[in-house]
C-alpha cells in the first residue's frame, strides 16, 4: 500500500503539472495530500510490527514527508487562480471566484462533434 501511495503521488504531480488549469491542479493536489497522509500513517505503523527492525527508517521517511508537505504548500500557492472553470461541487473554486451566470454554464446541447472533425482531412 505504501508503494501504491508513493506511485500515485508522483503520477498526480505529473498530472497537475501537465496543464495549468486551477481546478484540475487542485483536484490532483487533494489526491496527493490524501495519499501523502496515508503514507505518513502507514510508515508510522511499521514501528508496531515485531518483524520490522529498521525503526530509524520510520523517522527518516516521516521527515521527508514533512519536507514534502512544506514544498507542497508552496506549490499549491503558486497555482494560477485566474485560469479555472467553475466547479459545480464547490470544492475547487479559487478564493473569491464568482459563479457563472446561467447563460455561461455548460449545456449538453452546446456540444457539436463537428467542432472536432476536420472535413478537409481525408486521411482517415
List the helices and strands and how they pair.
Layout: H1 2-17, H2 22-45, H3 55-77
Give the structure's gist in a few sentences.
It contains 3 helices and no strands. With 124 residues, it is an all-alpha fold. The longest helix is centred in the N-terminal third of the chain and has 24 residues, at 22-45.
Describe this protein's structure.
With 124 residues, the protein is mainly α. It has one domain (1-117). It contains three helices and no strands. The longest helix is centred in the first third of the chain and has 24 residues, at 22-45.
Task: Give a quick set of tags describing it.
124 residues, mainly alpha
Major beta sheet summary: none
Strand content: under 5%
Instruction: State the secondary-structure class.
Output: mainly alpha
Which runs of at least 5 residues are low in confidence (pLDDT < 50)?
Answer: none
Q: What's the helix-strand series?
A: HHH
Number of strands: 0
The tally of helices reads 3
Q: Roughly what percent helix? A: 40-55%
Oligomeric state of the chains? single chain
Q: Indicate the mean pLDDT.
A: 86
Through-space gap between termini: 44 Å
Cα shape: elongated
How many structural units, i.e. domains? Answer: 1
Rg over CA atoms, rounded to whole Å, is: 21 Å
Amino acid at each position: 500500500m505504501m508503494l501504491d501511495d508513493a506511485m500515485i503521488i508522483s503520477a498526480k504531480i505529473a498530472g497537475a503539472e501537465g496543464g495549468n488549469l486551477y481546478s484540475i491542479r487542485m483536484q490532483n493536489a487533494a489526491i496527493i495530500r490524501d495519499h501523502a497522509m496515508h503514507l505518513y500513517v502507514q510508515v508510522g505503523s511499521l514501528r508496531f510490527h515485531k518483524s520490522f527492525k529498521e525503526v530509524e527508517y520510520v523517522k527518516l521517511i516521516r521527515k521527508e514527508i514533512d519536507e514534502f508537505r512544506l514544498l507542497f504548500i508552496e506549490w499549491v500557492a503558486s497555482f494560477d487562480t485566474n485560469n479555472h472553470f467553475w466547479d459545480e461541487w464547490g470544492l475547487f473554486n479559487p478564493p473569491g471566484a464568482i459563479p457563472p451566470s446561467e447563460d455561461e454554464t455548460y449545456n449538453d446541447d452546446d456540444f457539436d462533434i463537428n467542432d472536432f472533425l476536420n472535413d478537409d482531412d481525408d486521411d482517415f
